[in-house]
Design brief:
Pfam families: DEAD, Helicase_C, MZB, WHD_HRQ1. GO terms for molecular function: 3'-5' DNA helicase activity; ATP binding; nucleic acid binding. This is ATP-dependent helicase. One of its GO terms (cellular component) is nucleus. This protein has 787 residues and is an alpha/beta fold. The chain is 37% helix and 23% strand. It is built from 28 helices and 30 strands. Helix 17 crosses helix 27 and helix 25 packs across helix 27. About 3% of the residues have low confidence.
Length: 787
């Protein structure tokens, strides 16, 4: 596409309000090639030339082949569409040619990625020289029962996901003994996605796999691929428990990319008045800005993808764009855009992916479900509605446009929240080296207990298993034995329960159950159209909630907590709904404490209780609140960890002496801390929560907690980098042009934003005193200078 002309046309439009605040043109780059020290087999070289027109390997591909040939475990960190898959496909297939008995497991974070890569390998398997040794097969929850035995016995490469490895392969390792004995390689793709609770569980799954391979006499090499993050070696070494070699000399070419930062205009501006109205500090809807840009691109026959931060936003933008195109007598174009998000059935998602790849669709409005490397073809433009939460995800999404040597357009449309507005004012932060650290904690006792239970089911636990799972093996096993799940005999722990532990241990959510979402409008039958995890259900399908699916509105008639099902039916309404949450926290004796800037920092176990107490009705398009309804749903409690900051009596007194309410300053800093931590700990804003609390110490303190049982290290990372954390918070609030405080700085719409919420509702909560917040941060800086 002609990105420069598109930007010029937008700026000439009479509706343009100076939304473009920065354009960074990332120049095209020539390819860099290298020869591996050990030449590839001629059969592979011939295939690359014939099928892919590849005559030379990029530098990172050659480096990976060299390291793997030396027996090293590697992690490849290069840009999107840089040919990372060849870094593992080539050594694996070369090993099969050298030893037809060799085997490999490819692990992808999603079923869709496994299916996508299986297509590539199946095309290779049609080559005359490879057909006898290359036998790839997808093995996941959708694999028919009658095909599983054949795959175990015949496939040379298994493509699967952590969930299937956890629940469908490792517990049945006896049937896989020959495969595991000959397992040469374990490929872990998109390793940057394995962080937080999911990554911590996957670390346990990989250790169980290594343990069983050793039992059968194997020690496979590990090949990981990752997007760019600050700590790829640290993350992969904690994930695998092995020493890794970093491959990051990216030699792939790229086309020129025009990266636009787009800040929606304020709703209104007045002059000659010292007070600020709500319209002066609130910006136009990012969703509506995205609709305008998407419809313009589609009318220009420019293929585009829109990434949103929530399911609701994806459905709203699709709905608005389709209606807008229909109003402009472009109904045929309205048929060529679709929403795409988690919760859709697999057949629906595959249909959308295929239509996007073929060019049948001109636009897709997606959540991050399409962020990863599913091949949907070379797109012209990517619209990012709101900062995705990490710089890593930002570049993954931006990489979906211009996946070949062509010009492309990326537009990051800011929401009215602190980090988005910070990036609008500090673009270099986005384009500089990554500050983000992926965090996993395989030693989390809640996660470890589940993984050790699964390991014990697979093979009795002994003290030797500390080499895989750490020093808590015996302690956790004794607790399980006390509960009757394990039995100790001659120093070994055997699984003695009738329960199947893998089924009870969910890798991706806090809960182990999901709710079905069923349409009851049909004649005498319920049609399941989606699902949601049990923790999120009270935030998405509470009674009388409006549930959006493919641009259509449904109302929740009944939520059956016992049967785990939400009953819905279609409805014509002019509003959608937003949950209202309440929470409180109690923390215990701290495990770590240190003085900090005249006050004290604590790291402690904490109990957090939250509840969906009401919902609001929000008008489509205008986002006007038209009512709030109370709810009586059960509360949920988790035991986690928290970082606690007690600012000290001197700072509280100074705020009071200067005429400020100390609580207002603490609330503002709390909001800024919640906004800034995801950029440092590489977590999602939904992974953390925070309150200002006086009940624990008898004086107000800030509590920032992890939203997972036992904690996952996000608060711990904040405790370790508090200086950087507070410096970023200070830059956010001081850089905001508002006078009295707004959702872009000290305001925060939801203390625990739900994935099912609309991020546009950023101004719906009271905004703390900006001056009190700035004074509090200034006093902290003074205290630092005196230390």
């Amino acid at each position: 596409m002609d990105a420069e002309r598109f930007i010029t046309d937008v700026r000439r439009d009479k509706r343009y309000r100076d939304q473009v605040v920065h354009i960074r043109t990332i120049p095209a780059r020539e390819a860099k090639y290298a020869q591996p020290r050990h030449p590839l087999p001629e059969a592979l070289q011939s295939l690359l030339r014939r099928e892919h027109n590849i005559h030379h390997l990029y530098t990172h591909q050659a480096d990976a082949l060299n390291a793997v040939a030396e027996g090293k475990d590697v992690v490849i960190v290069t840009a999107t569409a840089s040919g990372k898959t060849l870094c593992y496909n080539l050594p694996v297939v070369a090993a099969l040619l050298a030893d037809p008995a060799a085997r490999a497991i490819y692990m992808f974070p999603t079923k869709a990625l496994a299916q996508d890569q299986a297509g590539v390998l199946n095309r290779w398997a049609g080559d005359e020289a490879l057909k006898d040794v290359l036998r790839p097969a997808v093995y996941d929850g959708d694999t028919p029962s009658h095909a599983r035995s054949r795959i175990r016995n015949k496939a040379s490469i298994i493509l699967t996901n952590p969930d299937m490895l956890h629940v469908g392969i490792l517990p049945y390792h006896g049937k896989w003994h020959e495969f595991l004995r000959n397992l040469h390689y374990i490929v872990v793709d998109e390793v940057h996605t394995y962080r937080g609770i999911f990554g911590s569980h996957v670390a346990g799954v990989l250790r169980r796999l290594f343990r069983l391979c050793e039992h059968y006499g194997g020690r496979p090499q590990v090949i990981c691929s990752s997007a760019t993050i600050a700590n790829p070696l640290e993350l992969t070494e904690r994930l695998t428990g092995r020493e890794m070699t970093l491959i990051d000399n990216d030699g792939a070419p790229r086309g020129r990319k025009h990266f636009v930062l787009w800040n929606p205009p304020f709703l209104s501006r007045t002059s000659g008045d010292d007070t600020e109205s709500a319209d002066e500090v609130l910006r136009r809807s990012a969703n509506i800005e995205a609709v305008d840009l998407l419809t313009r691109l589609v009318r220009n026959q420019t293929q585009a993808i829109v990434f949103t931060r929530s399911r609701v936003a994806a459905e709203l933008i699709y709905k608005y764009a389709a209606e807008d195109l229909a109003r402009q007598n472009s109904g045929d174009l309205a048929e060529r855009i679709r929403p795409y998000r988690g919760g859709y059935l697999p057949t629906e998602r595959r249909e959308i992916e295929k239509a996007l790849f073929s060019g049948e669709l001109l636009g897709v409005v997606a959540t991050n479900a399409l962020e990863l490397g599913i091949d949907v073809g070379a797109l012209d433009a990517a619209l990012l509605v709101g900062f995705p939460g990490t710089i890593c995800s930002t570049w993954q999404q931006a990489g979906r446009a211009g996946r070949t040597n062509q010009d492309s357009l990326v537009v990051l449309i800011a929401y009215d929240d602190p980090i988005d507005q910070y990036l609008m004012r500090n673009p270099d932060y986005l384009f500089a080296a990554s500050h983000e650290h992926g965090v996993v904690d395989p030693s989390n006792p809640h996660i470890l207990a589940g993984q050790l239970s699964c390991a014990c089911f697979e093979k009795p636990l002994t003290d030797a298993d500390e080499a895989y799972f750490g020093p808590l093996v015996r302690q956790v096993a004794e607790i399980c034995a006390g509960d009757g799940e394990m039995k100790q005999i001659d120093g070994r722990y055997y699984w003695s329960s009738s329960e199947y532990p893998a089924k009870a241990t969910n890798l991706r959510t806090m809960g182990s159950d999901t709710y079905a979402i069923a349409d009851i409008s049909g004649e005498g039958q319920h049609r399941v159209i989606g699902q949601v995890d049990s923790i999120s259900a009270p935030e998405l399908v509470y009674p009388n909630a409006v549930y959006l699916h493919e641009g259509k509105s449904y109302i929740v008639r009944h939520l059956d907590v016992e049967a785990k099902i939400a009953l819905i039916e279609p409805v014509e309404v002019d509003y959608y709904t937003q949950p209202v949450l309440a929470s409180h926290c109690r923390f215990d004796e701290p495990t770590e404490t240190r003085p900090w800037r005249g006050g004290q920092l604590l790291f402690a176990p904490a109990d957090v209780t939250w509840q969906t107490i009401a919902f609001r009705k929000v008008k489509y398009y205008t986002m006007e609140m038209v009512g709030q309804t109370e709810l009586d749903l059960p509360s949920q409690t988790l035991s986690t960890t928290a970082v606690v900051w007690d600012p000290g009596e001197a700072i509280r007194q100074r705020l009071s002496q200067d005429g400020y309410n100390p609580i207002e300053g603490l609330l503002g800093v709390r909001n800024l801390m919640l906004a800034a931590l995801p950029s440092l700990a590489m977590c999602d804003r939904r992974d953390i929560g925070g309150i200002v609390d006086s009940s624990n110490l008898g004086r107000p303190v800030i509590v920032i907690y992890d939203r997972y049982p036992g904690g996952l290290g996000f608060g711990q990372k904040g405790y370790e980098v508090t200086d950087t954390w507070m410096e970023m918070a200070s830059r956010i609030v001081r850089g905001c042009p508002c006078r009295q405080g707004c959702p872009s700085c000290v305001g925060l719409a939801n203390l625990r934003p739900a994935i099912h919420s609309d991020p546009d509702l950023g101004g719906s909560s009271p905004v703390p005193d900006k001056d009190a917040t700035i004074l509090l941060l200034h006093l902290l800086e003074q205290a630092a200078e005196q230390e």
